Amino acid sequence: MTEVKEKVKRDQYQKALSAYAQAMKAFHKGEYGKASEALKDFLRKHTSEIEFVDRAKIYLAICEGRLKKESIPLKTFDDYYQYGVYRLNQGEYKKALELLERARDNKPKEGKIFYLMALTYCLMKETEQCLENLKRAIQLDKYFKILAQNEENFEVLRKNKKFNLITRMA
């Protein structure tokens, strides 16, 4: 009878471990909705696995925090610009572009917006859009030529003739 109980206990532990691992896999991929559901399911089914329960609760709280809609009021050029930079740094390129476009709408002659849009398009591997925005940034302020020549994210464009023409234009 003891062997049977031990086997059942090992099987339950393996199931809990597998369920927890699946939830963590989703979490590390940034799939917080999926991870949240997997963690909730884990907590319902595996309450006896104390070593995982506390960690699961912590990760569930993190998931729920990341899933909450942000309620940052964006009104001014600086609001859109700063939040666009934040989203760019988070690797959320499409959202960053949306915010930068709104900032550009507020100040259409602000070179730093075009420069950041160029950088974002470069990171998205959209070369033509990148070069168009970079050209506009440099036209508005020659300072961006120097930045572009030294920007490591533009390294992939160093052999591009159009990039070299744009960054060398006076």
Quick rundown:
The protein has nine helices and no strands.
Structural notes for this entry:
This protein is mostly helical. It has 2 domains: 2-67; 77-168, Tetratricopeptide repeat domain (Serine Threonine Protein Phosphatase 5, Tetratricopeptide repeat, Alpha Horseshoe). The chain contains 9 helices and no strands.
CATH architecture of the largest domain: Alpha Horseshoe
Low-confidence stretches: none
CATH superfamily of the largest domain: Tetratricopeptide repeat domain
Briefly note the structural class of the backbone.
mainly alpha
Describe the secondary-structure layout.
Blueprint: H1 2-28, H2 32-45, H3 50-67, H4 77-89, H5 93-106, H6 111-123, H7 127-140, H8 143-150, H9 161-168
Which characteristics define this entry?
170 residues; mainly alpha; Serine Threonine Protein Phosphatase 5, Tetratricopeptide repeat; 9 helices
